[in-house]
Amino acid sequence: MLIKLGAVIAALLMISGAAAAADLTDPQIAHIAYTAGVIDINAANLALKKSKNAEVRAFAENMVADHTAVNDQALALLKKLNVAPEDNDTSKALVAGAAAKAAELGALNGAAFDKAYVANEVAYHKTVNGALEGTLIPATSNAELKALLQTGLKIFQGHQQHAEHLAMTVK
To answer: CA torsion 53→45→127→100, rounded to 10°?
Structure first.
């Protein structure tokens, strides 16, 4: 079920090396983080359309609310700094991987969908959190952007824990 997640993980791992991180600019980092948030919002919206499980739906609603709030803060900060996010190879790979994963999830229904969605959320948050903590935050130059990413990381670590707990209950 997690076959297409490999593309997303590969995209995030592209930035895991010190040399790759040194090559990223703050506008590129902002775009990667924003894109990762949009991907999770889209996955959550799919869950809201397909799932009948109250716990899965509540989790998805939380994903939409939290990722939207962080992305809105990121856009406001970039506007304040008069900086435009820059698309890059990593953000493009994230979008491509997410489209494939959405198609895979979209073909599932009922408990199979719920289980696959939650498993994807565990793996996705683990990967994104690792990229934020190990690469994106250390490579960020602007103190305000770094602080926003650190705040987002704390929120998203909570998402990972929530998803891990949910994975134990969704059958």
So the answer is: 110
